[in-house]
Amino acid sequence: MIDREEAWASLMRSALAGDQAAYESLLRELAPALRASVRRRLAGMGQSVDACEDIVQETLLAIHLKRHTWRTSDPFGPWLFTVARNKLIDHVRKRGRRIEIPIEDFADILPAAEERPGTDAADVERHLAELPTKQRAVLRAVAVEGASVAEAARKHGMTPGAVRVALHRGFASLASRLRAQD
Amino acid sequence: MRTDDLIRGLAADTTREASPGRAVTMLLPAGFAVAGLLFVLLLRVRADFLPMLATPWLPFKFALTLSLAVVALVLLLRLARPGIKAVPAVIALLVPGGMMALGIAAVLGVTPPETWMPGLIGHNARYCMVLVPLMGAPILVALLLAMRKGAPTRPGLAGACAGLAAGGLGAALYALHCTDDSPLFVLVWYGIGIAALTLAGALIGRRVLAW
Prior knowledge:
A: Rna Polymerase Sigma Factor, Chain: A, globular, B: 9 helices, RNA polymerase sigma-70 factor, ECF subfamily (chain A), sigma factor activity (chain A), transcription (chain A), DNA-binding (chain A)
């Protein structure tokens, strides 16, 4: 498990140094690990696991938007588990339950990753529909259609810089809408 | 949206915010500048500033308030990062706490008892209670803005810490003006001002620092 955290840390270091491919493979490795742990925790609390994929997506968004709070010299595991725990607690608390989850629980179950690719989630999609038009168009083009920033810029008649800004603002406002939802 | 698609989108978003440390370094001077402007507009440096600097009492006020601010800032930066334990660092609050205790011990040890109450009551207690939070307010705003770049898992505690740091710095600024030098006065009236800012920070932090 320490090996895996060290591998994640090394991917994140490359990512923070500007290696986009390393970043994408990190997120792809984290997703199934998060999915397994969230499902276990939800089941353990007697909650429906339907919300699992929503929580995974919200956690990935948080990891993305707060990645600059991880210092490359710090261990990656505690940072990751704390972000994941926070998002899970938020999600369950919004549904009216007060919970305490020791951080060790995350560390323990992370090795038991199981892959369920392509599972659908509802929350991000729902809030995406309410974003400003430009942000929504750019986000869809880049994420769903797999366009590059340059392609999205051509398609929507924007400069690449404006596409980058819209993409980032889109993710940031998605995250704050997800947090504010009841 | 499928998680795979979300990941593809996230990987394409190369915009990154400033680290909490950098955000504080950039915004704190701005907050301090606004506080300094307020000082220039509303107050002036006490006339006997230089002679009083040679006594123990005035340097005590700066040492106390500035060490409180430094400890609170260190705590704040730890609270900004998930997975970093901040609670052990709370022990560092013993530095300003111990300094306060020493100051009280000194005043009770070396000054005659009949001066204690006048020292405690001072001349400008009401102004002090208002002006310490006022001097600290722009600094609190700057620190809260900086902390929005962080990821505090305890937003209320982080806000309180920002308020404590802002209170310490605001009090140090006010101490340039204030002529009440008894550590008893500092404990009570500066304490009330700093506590008010800490409470404000906690309440605002709970709302604006969640992520």
